[in-house]
Amino acid sequence: MALTSEEKKKIVQENKNNVGCTETQIALLSARMKKLLEHGQKHKKDFSASRCLSKLSSRRKKFLGYLKRKNKESYNKIIKEDKKLKKGNKVV
């Protein structure tokens, strides 16, 4: 369920070509989580994908906590964009 290089490039370009910034890392994790959610709906007994999804979710949660401490405006922007992942699907 890895992202293709074109998908990664698109996400990085949307985030000002800065691969290492927290916002880009969160965007990459979110995109990968969406792919795993789609995969999980088709393959309900794929427990390794489920475990990977929980690991990605915890990494994303740690990045969001860091971003909340360092840059509150950017944190609020990301949360508004990802309400679906934050509340609707019970991922985080």
Explain what this protein looks like in three dimensions.
The chain is globular and about 40 Å long. The longest helix has 24 residues. By secondary structure, the protein is mainly alpha-helical. It is 77% helix and 0% strand. The chain contains five helices and no strands. It has a single domain, classed as S15/NS1, RNA-binding (Helix Hairpins), CATH 1.10.287. Helix 2 runs antiparallel to helix 3 and helix 3 runs antiparallel to helix 4.
Count of β-strands: 0
What is the rounded distance between the termini? 19 Å
Task: Return Rg in Å.
Answer: 13 Å
What is the top-level CATH class?
Mainly Alpha
List unreliable stretches of 5+ residues: none
Task: Give the CATH topology.
Answer: Helix Hairpins
Element-by-element helix/strand order = HHHHH
Individual helix count: 5
Broad shape? globular
Provide the helix percentage: over 70%
CATH architecture: Orthogonal Bundle
Strand share of the residues? under 5%
Number of domains: 1
Mind telling me the CATH superfamily name?
S15/NS1, RNA-binding
Structural class: mainly alpha
Q: Mind summarizing the main beta sheet? A: none
